[in-house]
């Protein structure tokens, strides 16, 4: 039984990864899960310099999910390279670095800096709804998506996976634009913009007013978008959004994802990533699936 | 690195000890064995619509019987769910989390305000020094018997129904108290006043902070507070309350 | 204490309405709630001729919500005018008729047919994701939104409320287009397109593959869109999406909705609409709100 | 118009009567008082992540004590939740829903397949005629004692472990049975076969249908089945299973 998948030329031991921003660089969750068991660890978004992020409150619970407006707080690429990459290199897992920036130049700086680093994959976040400049602005216009993808490909040494925003009319338009720009793969979905108001205090719950919604509440939207994207492009897809258990992960794979990322679920159950790997294995045994590749996009018309 | 555990804890008993304030003893082998005063646990709801943990301070630890006590106020839907649970019911918890209080052998104020009172009880039990326990309540008192066993207790109530009318600083002044170190947990305005009081009086001051959390273990960067110096982990002036805290030197944090 | 609101010149006894398609034309829920207690009943979408709708399964439960692909089954305007309007006229509530069509002409035919009917408001559904033609296609392009709004205004005798789709990059663009077309008000949000796959049968759960997601899972997205729209236009907004209780309804009003519609919640609790009216009253008493209008859009900056 | 009620029912007792098949008696004043054979109730989950009702047929009605019996298979998350509940626990239910079976005084087949068996029990109790009860199981039998009190029972099992090996029609043939009317509930293939059998043999045939539901009361148009003639309510060839059904004349519906 084979659980290995090929993601943009990189072989993952299994298709289960962590969703950027929910897992730090793995150190904290390493107290609960064996990182060797994961297909890849995807790091929190990192920028060319340290970012302080947004004021608090940065998170709010909503029905079946949460809102976050962390605002891409990160220690900057220098400390990241010095501390986080060596930490992750200790494990038999792949490293995907999530990259953020306010401008094309900032993205380029990070990607350049990672050229000679032992990093397997790059995930370019052009879909963060919680920063004023950069982020989502790049991800809602197909021309901008294509342009930044091209720039990333020009400067990156590792395969480039563009992370798309679900806050668009037509996800396939953005997916095609990224493919046209030369993307090696796509990650979707980032969070859906939401808002919560405290009716007793008559105030926004988040300091940032709006936040990105994640968790099982967004899962059906994510499955739909992964499915639509899989029909529209031929590059591999990393599916994410509300994956809480193996069932949700398999659903995403059947819809067309080559690998999956698990985010908010970590907050509910710090062991969840390992449990999902085991659950996918059980499913494959139960249904006698010899190779996980046979499940990718298996449900269509 | 402090060890953390995910456990399915079993409710040993639960009672309402004041209006909307509940005391719950949980059986939990490993968390009880590893916990210390000032740490907290993440408590998960059983209802699937609520996914984030509720951070609740550890009020008492019974290492012998593998149990911890949580005392909490019903503040919303999650704590309302907990309050309806009975002996034998299960609750998923993760802990012990956070750093906990340092323990010095100096004449101390243990100051608790409102629902910040419970964690001071375990601290009082662990501290080996002269303890002056100053508790600020809105109106109804709770945990008084337990605290009285640990040292001299001074009370302030907002409505003046017991002890000093006013806040904990009013009680300190009214009783002419002094100390070399402050350990405190309570609402922000109280912590702010204590920070100022400690600075003016050159007293070492440790406070336990609160913020909305998601992971509770330092991974998501939800729960930061502003720090005076650049923090080693974040590389910016932000400290994670769930990881570097919840207990900070008052002068280290801006709030 | 005043709970009456003015919606496009029509006075509702209170701001609580039913969401189109979840309440039929009121007859079934009248066994549980007193329709006289509701601000308005919004009917299931009605077309110029009877529509058979989509094949079953038409609904699927998802975490914190549901998907539907009913496909606008409706008995056609003739039977509707003959049976449903007289039924609703028995009650001291307002009648808002939800209108659907495959083409501008079909919408016009319904709206014309309603000119001399005792109907208070029209809600034009240009956002149904579950029909192949018409529906959402009109609602995802600002030019089309403006054009169809103009046509509706040309032919309608009653105030025209355009119902917008959340499946767009920028809801304010659609809202402004409707306002520019002369809309008297806006309804939002319709459902968000989602998908569910049964991993054991390896099949789509819905016959239509995709369905519209509703229920509390979409509430934070709805609140955000109502808020953004309220900042962008000056016509009144009917807020909906995942309102399960009075708290959710008040949140929507604070975000900028003049009235609210309650949909999926009816399926969970057939008495919910009446309970929400009572709950809003309690809130107003508790916080001594003399006039509900003071709550509309009260939370901003 | 049949009256419908929303009630918070209390579990009187629950037991597993076969592998993954549970029998639950619920106390419910009004629904029990108004229900009849072939109707169903909407059962709500307590977990907030599951919002839609689970339609479950009424298996038995105890009007005297105001109770109904539900017999269900654990098919997914909702029924799994129900199966874990104990005496005294509360369940929100709405009912009685749907039309129920007509009751004629003709020599009858009461045919149940799998989890379509339970509703035939209350029907057997209400019918006043010659009753031949034909039950099709996968393997393990259940409710046999109850049915035997109501008439002659013929059994078919897929694995041949009891009665006729095969399906209900095999049992009818093997036992050389005939009847003037069929009442049936069970899986689609069984109903299809019975419809055909009834047409060929010119027997009146009533079947209880199943479809995914949302409102359960006729408002949302989720649960339609195709009807032969234009339906008066829908004005198209669709009937609502929750409202015009779940029981239909077999020749009225296409499936
Ligand atoms: C380190 C720490 C220790 C705490 N110790 C205690 C204690 O010992 N006893 C006690 O009664 N309370 C304590 N609190 C506060 C307690 O966490 C909240 O009252 C509780 O989370 C409210 O949950 P709810 O579901 O009832 O409220 P809701 O408002 O329904 O909760 C919604 C969301 O907001 C979060 N939230 C709401 N209020 C707070 C808050 N004040 N702080 C952090 N998150 C919040 C919840 O965790 C949840 O994710 C502590 C908070 C922190 C950060
Ligand atoms: C009129 C009617 C009467 C029924 N009577 C019985 C009975 O007496 N005993 C019994 O065991 N089962 C009965 N069923 C089937 C029962 O409703 C489903 O098994 C149950 O809803 C499954 O819920 P779940 O949460 O366990 O499964 P999940 O798969 O987790 O449910 C997900 C969603 O799909 C719906 N669903 C799943 N399966 C079915 C189904 N077969 N029919 C309708 N909705 C479904 C659920 O209600 C829920 O909304 C009846 C169905 C209908 C329509
Ligand atoms: C607290 C938090 C922080 C996040 N930070 C990032 C980030 O830095 N970069 C990024 O691309 N996505 C970020 N995301 C989005 C997640 O990677 C993921 O796309 C989204 O949460 C959906 O998955 P989930 O529902 O499993 O959480 C963040 C999400 C959360 C909840
Ligand atoms: C079963 C169902 C049928 C619906 N039919 C219609 C419709 O005919 N016309 C329409 O404009 N919206 C329709 N909607 C959308 C609702 O009116 C509403 O916009 C949406 O469900 C969000 O509200 P809720 O979360 O409260 O259900 C339908 C929704 C559901 C669940
Ligand atoms: S709650 Fe995640 S870092 Fe503190
Ligand atoms: S379930 Fe809504 S009409 Fe039958």
Automatic annotation (TrEMBL), chains A, C:
Xref: Pfam families: DHO_dh
Residues of the active site: 128
The protein's required cofactors: FMN
Gene Ontology molecular functions: dihydroorotate dehydrogenase (NAD+) activity
Biological pathway: Pyrimidine metabolism; UMP biosynthesis via de novo pathway; orotate from (S)-dihydroorotate (NAD(+) route): step 1/1
Cellular location(s): Cytoplasm
Organism name: Roseburia inulinivorans DSM 16841
Family matches, as SUPFAM superfamilies: FMN-linked oxidoreductases (SSF51395)
Name of encoding gene: pyrD
Keyword Oxidoreductase among UniProt keywords: yes
Secretion signal, residue range per the UniProt entry: none
Cellular-component GO terms for this entry: cytoplasm
PANTHER family xrefs: DIHYDROOROTATE DEHYDROGENASE (FUMARATE) (PTHR48109:SF1), DIHYDROOROTATE DEHYDROGENASE (QUINONE), MITOCHONDRIAL-RELATED (PTHR48109)
Function text: Catalyzes the conversion of dihydroorotate to orotate with NAD(+) as electron acceptor.
Details of cofactor binding: Binds 1 FMN per subunit.
Domain Dihydroorotate dehydrogenase catalytic: 3-284
Keyword terms, alphabetized: Cytoplasm, Flavoprotein, FMN, NAD, Oxidoreductase, Pyrimidine biosynthesis
Record's catalysed reaction(s): (S)-dihydroorotate + NAD(+) = orotate + NADH + H(+); (S)-dihydroorotate + A = orotate + AH2
Protein family according to the UniProt entry: Belongs to the dihydroorotate dehydrogenase family. Type 1 subfamily.
Top EC class of this enzyme: oxidoreductase
GO BP terms in the entry: 'de novo' pyrimidine nucleobase biosynthetic process; 'de novo' UMP biosynthetic process
EC number(s) per entry: 1.3.-.-
Residues reported to bind substrate: 44, 68-72, 125, 190-191
Name used for this protein in its record: Dihydroorotate dehydrogenase
Automatic annotation (TrEMBL), chains B, D:
A single GO molecular function term of this UniProt record: electron transfer activity
Binding sites annotated in the UniProt record for [2Fe-2S] cluster: 215, 220, 223, 242
Pathway(s): Pyrimidine metabolism; UMP biosynthesis via de novo pathway; orotate from (S)-dihydroorotate (NAD(+) route): step 1/1
One of the GO BP terms on file: 'de novo' UMP biosynthetic process
The keyword Lipid biosynthesis belongs to this UniProt entry's keyword annotation: no
Tree of life domain: Bacteria
Known cofactor(s): [2Fe-2S] cluster; FAD
PROSITE patterns: FAD_FR
Keywords: 2Fe-2S, Electron transport, FAD, Flavoprotein, Iron, Iron-sulfur, Metal-binding, Pyrimidine biosynthesis, Transport
Binding site for FAD: 54-57, 71-73, 78-79
InterPro entries, A to Z: Cbr1-like_FAD-bd_dom (IPR008333), Cyt_c3_hydrogenase_gsu (IPR012165), Dihydroorotate_DH_ele_sf (IPR037117), Dihydroorotate_DH_Fe-S-bd (IPR019480), Dihydroorotate_DHASE_ETsu (IPR023455), FAD-bd_FR_type (IPR017927), FNR_nucleotide-bd (IPR039261), OxRdtase_FAD/NAD-bd (IPR001433)
Coiled coil: none
Domain FAD-binding FR-type as annotated: residue spans: 4-103
Pfam family, one: FAD_binding_6
Family note: Belongs to the PyrK family.
Subunit structure: Heterotetramer of 2 PyrK and 2 PyrD type B subunits.
Name assigned to this protein: Dihydroorotate dehydrogenase B (NAD(+)), electron transfer subunit
UniProt source species: Roseburia inulinivorans DSM 16841
């Amino acid at each position: 039984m084979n659980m290995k998948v090929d993601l943009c030329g990189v072989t993952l031991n299994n298709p289960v990864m962590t969703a950027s921003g929910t897992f730090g660089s793995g150190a904290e969750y390493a107290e609960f899960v064996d990182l060797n068991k994961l297909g890849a660890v995807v790091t929190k978004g990192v920028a060319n310099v340290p970012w302080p992020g947004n004021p608090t409150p940065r998170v709010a619970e909503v029905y079946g999910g949460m809102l976050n407006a962390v605002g891409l707080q990160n220690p900057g690429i220098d400390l990241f390279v010095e501390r986080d990459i060596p930490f992750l290199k200790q494990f038999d897992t792949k490293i995907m670095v999530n990259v953020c920036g306010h401008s094309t130049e900032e993205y380029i700086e990070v990607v350049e800096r990672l050229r000679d680093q032992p990093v397997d994959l790059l995930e370019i976040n052009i879909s963060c709804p919680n920063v004023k400049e950069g982020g989502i602005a790049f991800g809602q216009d197909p021309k901008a998506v294509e342009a930044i993808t091209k720039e990333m490909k020009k400067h990156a040494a590792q395969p480039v996976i563009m992370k798309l925003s679900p806050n668009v009319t037509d996800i396939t338009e953005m997916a095609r634009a990224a493919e046209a720009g030369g993307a090696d793969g796509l990650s979707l979905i980032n969070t859906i913009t939401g808002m919560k108001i405290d009716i007793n205090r008559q105030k926004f719950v988040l300091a940032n007013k709006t936040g990105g919604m994640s968790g099982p509440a967004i899962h059906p939207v994510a499955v739909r978008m992964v499915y639509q994207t899989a029909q529209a492009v031929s590059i591999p897809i990393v599916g994410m959004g509300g994956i809480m258990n193996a069932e949700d992960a398999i659903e995403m794979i059947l819809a067309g994802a080559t690998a999956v990322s698990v985010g908010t679920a970590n907050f509910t159950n710090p062991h969840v990533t390992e449990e999902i790997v085991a659950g996918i294995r059980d499913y494959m045994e139960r249904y006698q699936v010899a190779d996980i590749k046979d499940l990718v996009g298996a449900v269509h018309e | 690195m402090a060890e953390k555990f995910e456990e399915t804890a079993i409710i040993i008993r639960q009672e309402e000890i004041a209006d909307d304030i509940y005391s719950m003893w949980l059986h939990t082998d490993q968390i009880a064995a590893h916990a210390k005063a000032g740490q907290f646990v993440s408590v998960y709801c059983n209802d699937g619509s609520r996914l984030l943990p509720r951070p609740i301070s550890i009020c008492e630890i019974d290492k012998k019987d593998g149990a911890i006590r949580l005392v909490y106020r019903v503040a919303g839907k999650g704590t309302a769910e907990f309050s309806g649970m009975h002996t034998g019911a299960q609750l998923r918890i993760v802990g012990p989390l956070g750093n906990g209080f340092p323990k010095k052998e100096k004449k101390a104020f243990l100051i608790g305000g409102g629902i910040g009172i419970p964690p001071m009880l375990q601290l009082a039990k662990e501290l080996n020094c002269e303890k002056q326990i100053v508790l600020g309540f809105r109106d109804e008192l709770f945990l008084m018997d337990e605290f009285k066993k640990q040292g001299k207790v001074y009370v302030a109530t907002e409505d003046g129904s017991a002890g000093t009318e006013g806040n904990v600083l009013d009680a300190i002044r009214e009783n002419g108290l002094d100390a070399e170190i402050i350990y405190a947990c309570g609402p922000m305005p109280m912590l702010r006043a204590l920070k100022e009081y400690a600075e003016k009086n050159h007293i070492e001051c440790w406070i336990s902070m609160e913020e909305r959390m998601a992971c509770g273990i330092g991974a998501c960067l939800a729960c930061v507070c502003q720090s005076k110096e650049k923090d080693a982990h974040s590389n910016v002036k932000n400290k994670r309350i769930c990881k570097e805290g919840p207990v900070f030197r008052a002068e280290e944090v801006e709030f």
